[in-house]
């Protein structure tokens, strides 16, 4: 039931690892990159609660509750992923990112809800960790695709303003994997019908209409569980950090570590391929760490809060170390530490949340919870990154990685706000 996340993460990894490279190739200045990302989280802020709400109120005897949304998102994501690297102008690339991110999210949030639908509380840490294991595999493979394409002879350089063929081929492979893996989940996974189908149909009938749906979403936002609000603080600092990485890892590392700034040069494109390789390391380590957590959570009960806190601290120090390294290979160590945080971010908050939410509202609350992912990205995109790293650390773009690390450490400390035992411990 989680295999489709392999494809979803192919999309996210290619988007996160290489859209900034595409923006730079098309002439974007470093400080303008975050604003080019803004359409994606803005759309997510609107799309995710709506998709969650609709999936809660969907039931078909053949297609189920969540799977129709998997298919819609997969079709749209595949199209957007294929065409993104063929963008001829910055506004086209930004539009492609907007469509791609929104489409992936149509599939992603119902996937989160599906795990909570099908597993009892005692197995949810395990379920979300297994999902994270698959995400780690996707991140590692997809992040290395442009590098691999270069190794088999596909050019990784092109004329100024043209995205290299290695990136185009990588996105095409990602599109195929995304669609086929989600389709596999759709075809092989059964969903449970609502426990009381008659009551479900009556509730769905009563909530018909656009304005009724909007009112219910806002009512759910206003009445969100206390644990969810506290987790929102943790999520804010966590996703601010990772948005900073996706926006600035390529310009920061190619400039600071490889001393390459000419985006049409072979040196820059080799360095950008290497950045993708290093980003793959965090996916690989998140896979290994998730595998370890999967083994542990299948055998014993864990303290989710403590695991998440220590993991975020590890990732935060990994980001900060990037500023101090003397050799490029050391980036593997830094991103390995980031991978520990990534594995926890993709599992522990959802396990904590799902233990405190009404099962009949799982979809809408998973969608609302994603607001705490997209809001920090919006804050970062509209100037939060540029303002904060220059104010706190200095003008050099490498300080964005120091900012990302500091944000993750704050996210770790924010876990101390969560005191509900139902959330922090396996049931």
Automatic annotation (TrEMBL):
Transmembrane intervals: 35-55, 67-84, 128-149, 169-187, 231-249, 278-297, 306-324, 330-352, 364-385, 397-418
First-listed, main subcellular location of the protein, grouped into a coarse class: membrane
Alphabetically ordered keywords of this record: Membrane, Transmembrane, Transmembrane helix, Transport
Superkingdom to which the source organism belongs: Bacteria
Location of the Major facilitator superfamily (MFS) profile domain: 227-427
GO MF annotation terms: transmembrane transporter activity
Places the protein is found: Membrane
Xref: PROSITE patterns: MFS (PS50850)
An example Gene Ontology CC term for this record: membrane
UniProt keyword Transmembrane helix present: yes
Signal peptide segment: none
InterPro entries in the record: MFS, MFS_dom, MFS_trans_sf
Topology term for the membrane: Multi-pass membrane protein
PANTHER family xref list: SOLUTE CARRIER FAMILY 45 MEMBER 3 ISOFORM X1 (PTHR19432:SF35), SUGAR TRANSPORTER (PTHR19432)
Protein name: Sucrose/H+ symporter
Protein source organism: Cecembia lonarensis (strain CCUG 58316 / KCTC 22772 / LW9)
């Amino acid at each position: 039931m989680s295999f489709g996340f392999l494809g979803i993460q192919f999309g996210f990894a290619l988007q996160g690892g290489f859209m900034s490279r595409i923006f730079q190739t098309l002439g974007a200045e470093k400080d303008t990159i975050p604003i080019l990302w803004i359409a994606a989280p803005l759309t997510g802020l609107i799309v995710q609660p709506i998709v969650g709400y609709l999936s809660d109120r969907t039931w078909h005897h053949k297609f189920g509750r969540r799977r129709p949304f998997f298919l819609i998102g997969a079709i749209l994501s595949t199209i957007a992923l294929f065409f993104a690297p063929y963008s001829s102008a910055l506004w086209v690339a930004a539009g492609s990112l907007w469509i791609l991110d929104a489409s992936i999210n149509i599939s992603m949030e119902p996937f989160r809800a599906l795990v909570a639908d099908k597993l009892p509380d005692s197995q949810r840490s395990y379920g979300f960790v297994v999902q994270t294991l698959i995400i780690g595999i996707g991140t590692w493979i997809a992040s290395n695709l442009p590098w691999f394409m270069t190794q088999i002879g596909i050019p990784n350089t092109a004329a100024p303003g043209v995205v290299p063929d290695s990136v185009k081929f990588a996105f095409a492979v990602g599109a195929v994997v995304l669609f086929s893996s989600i389709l596999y989940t759709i075809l092989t996974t059964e969903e449970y019908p609502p426990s009381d189908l008659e009551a479900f149909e009556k509730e769905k009938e009563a909530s018909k209409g656009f304005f009724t749906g909007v009112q219910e979403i806002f009512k759910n936002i206003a009445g969100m569980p206390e644990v969810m609000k506290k987790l929102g603080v943790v999520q804010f600092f966590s996703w601010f950090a990772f948005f900073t990485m996706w926006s600035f890892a390529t310009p920061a590392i190619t400039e600071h570590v490889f001393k390459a700034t000419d985006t049409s040069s072979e040196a820059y494109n080799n360095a950008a391929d290497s950045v993708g390789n290093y980003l793959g390391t965090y996916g690989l380590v998140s896979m290994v760490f998730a595998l370890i957590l999967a083994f542990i959570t299948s055998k014993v009960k864990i303290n989710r809060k403590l695991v998440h806190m220590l993991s975020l601290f590890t990732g935060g120090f990994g980001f900060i170390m990037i500023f101090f390294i003397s050799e490029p290979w050391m980036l593997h160590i830094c991103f390995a530490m980031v991978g520990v945080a990534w594995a926890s971010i993709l599992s522990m908050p959802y396990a904590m949340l799902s233990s405190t939410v009404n099962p009949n509202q799982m979809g809408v609350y998973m969608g609302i919870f994603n607001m705490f992912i997209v809001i920090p990205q919006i804050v970062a995109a509209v100037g939060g990154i540029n303002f904060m790293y220059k104010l706190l650390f200095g003008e050099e773009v490498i300080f964005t990685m120091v900012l990302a690390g500091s944000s993750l450490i704050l996210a770790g400390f924010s876990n101390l706000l969560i005191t509900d035992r139902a959330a922090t411990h396996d049931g």
